[in-house]
Amino acid sequence: MTDTCIIGAGSSGVTVAKSLKDAGQTADIFEKGSQIGGMWRYENDNGQSSCYASLHIDTSRPNLGYSDFPIDPSLPDFLSHAQFLGHLEAYADHFGIPEMVRFNTAVTSVEPEGDRYRVTLDTGESRDYARVVIANGHLSDPRMPDFPGQFDGTAIHSHHYRSADPYIGKRVLVVGIGNSAVDIAVDLCRRAEHVTLSTRRSAWVMPKYLMGVPIDQWSGFLGRKLRLPTPAVRRIMAQLIKLGVGDQRRFGLPRPEHPMWREHATLSQELLPNIGHGYIDVKPNVKRLDGTRVAFVDGTDAPYDAIIYATGYNLTFPFLDRGVFDPDLQAGELYRRMVVPAHPGLIHAGLVQPVGPTIPLVETQGKWIAALASGRMTLPPRAEMDREITAHRDYQRRTYLDAPRYALEVDYKTYTRQMLADMKAGQAGT
Ligand SMILES: Cc1cc2nc3c(=O)[nH]c(=O)nc-3n(C[C@H](O)[C@H](O)[C@H](O)COP(=O)(O)OP(=O)(O)OC[C@H]3O[C@@H](n4cnc5c(N)ncnc54)[C@H](O)[C@@H]3O)c2cc1C
Ligand SMILES: NC(=O)c1ccc[n+]([C@@H]2O[C@H](COP(=O)([O-])OP(=O)(O)OC[C@H]3O[C@@H](n4cnc5c(N)ncnc54)[C@H](OP(=O)(O)O)[C@@H]3O)[C@@H](O)[C@H]2O)c1
């Protein structure tokens, strides 16, 4: 009997399905688009992909592959979105996943009924399951800032940015300094007339390469090969990065007030040189939109033809009633970052923001979910789940900035170790 439903066939849904299959379990996967790949399929017909034409993955090839399906070593250090999609398709085909997917079918509601879950599809059909794996992606609903005033030029969110073509010869303001903002500013800057990057809090900008080696391979070498503890790895990496980048204030980018590892890394090899060549300038936060001009909080203002808001994403689960799961209150309140404690058959996959890559981390989540579904591992009682959540929230507050952007933050190594220990013990712990 198929007792697991998976919502979504992006990288998260695919790897969870693969682990379930390995564990002898079947699953119904519902995917609203016509193909697998989710976010990594450029112009996906699900209307949900935030992929732009120049997007390259920011984890180097050896750290990105699945444990039993490595990435073709002839591919470059940092795969393009099309190359990663090709790899994901090969992985899914090899393990027979597309046959498990019902494409062009959206889940419209999931309702708990006793200890089971009624799943309704956009065809009107309803089915019931012991568990529902929620893998619908969390980076597609644009979060827009609410600046006072009105802008008369073009304004879009980075979710809708595809290429520099519409911005040739234009003056463009990019708001934010996450990975989307810096990728887009760099993509635009040689073709637009000028690009400004506006940031309210700044960020540590880290290069993709240090001494010719991808930066994540340095941390991998220190942590895994030399077996140094995470704090020591971070201290050494911070010194290496400071040597490689120098003082970012030289480029007009304020030093963040927090230490380097208390926030999500912004990775870019090209941002600082492009600032240094005068293609991009840096401004603080926007104070006011004023027709064709934008005023900044430092008292300066400038004219712009377009604004791109690279201001991140809202967490949205339109098929779940907020009484069942309210993402604004409960996204950081999941047991082992997956299980909704009040409805333990509702299990999120991929709802994490690791220091390190998301994609292989969700492979381990998939194995954990499969251990649960096949009865090889059990969940602890509710009180213990709540204790684990409190302990994780305390750890987050001690380790990262206490801001909404960090509610999903996990440490790759620690979190992987916890999931592996649960599976080994056959009982998920605290
Ligand atoms: C611009 C950008 C760059 C990124 N770069 C990296 C990177 O370099 N490295 C990294 O590890 N991560 C990166 N990420 C994070 C990335 O999103 C995740 O790593 C991962 O690929 C997301 O996979 P997913 O399956 O969870 O979500 P998605 O890829 O979004 O897939 C979700 C799927 O669910 C389907 N779906 C949604 N709702 C429904 C419904 N109601 N019914 C049926 N189907 C539904 C969608 O159609 C979609 O196919 C990046 C994200 C963004 C936005
Ligand atoms: N190449 C790649 O691999 C790549 C490319 C793009 C994205 N990604 C990933 O995709 C995810 C989303 O990235 P993202 O860059 O789109 O979003 P993000 O990481 O959430 O960054 C959003 C940025 O917008 C700023 N911001 C938010 N609200 C604002 C407001 N009201 N006013 C002013 N500034 C505001 C934030 O500043 P504060 O810090 O002050 O909140 C932050 O600088 C991340 O995991 C990222 O790593 C990866």
Q: What does the model show?
A:
The protein has 430 residues and is an alpha/beta fold. It folds into two domains: 251 residues, FAD/NAD(P)-binding domain; 165 residues, FAD/NAD(P)-binding domain (3-Layer(bba) Sandwich), CATH 3.50.50. The strands form eight sheets. It has a six-stranded mixed β-sheet, covered by helices on one side. A five-stranded parallel β-sheet has the order 10-21-11-12-17. Helix 1 runs parallel beside helix 8 and helix 8 runs parallel beside helix 10. The longest helix has 18 residues. It starts with a strand and ends in a 5-residue tail after the last helix. Bound molecules: flavin-adenine dinucleotide and NADP nicotinamide-adenine-dinucleotide phosphate. The site of NADP nicotinamide-adenine-dinucleotide phosphate has 25 residues, from helix 3.
In short:
It is built from ten helices and 26 strands. The protein has 430 residues and is an alpha/beta fold. Belongs to the FMO family.
Shape: globular
Oligomeric status:
single chain
- As for the CATH topology of the largest domain, it is FAD/NAD(P)-binding domain
CATH class of the largest domain: Alpha Beta
Poorly predicted regions:
none
Biggest pleated-sheet summary: 6 strands, mixed
Percent of residues in beta strands: 15-25%
The ligands bound in this entry are: flavin-adenine dinucleotide, NADP nicotinamide-adenine-dinucleotide phosphate
Euclidean distance between termini CA atoms: 31 Å
User: What's the CATH architecture name of the largest domain?
Assistant: 3-Layer(bba) Sandwich
Number of domains: 2
Total DSSP helices = 10
- Mean pLDDT score, rounded? 94
GO molecular function, one term: trimethylamine monooxygenase activity
Family: Belongs to the FMO family.
Organism: Pseudooceanicola atlanticus
Protein name: Trimethylamine monooxygenase
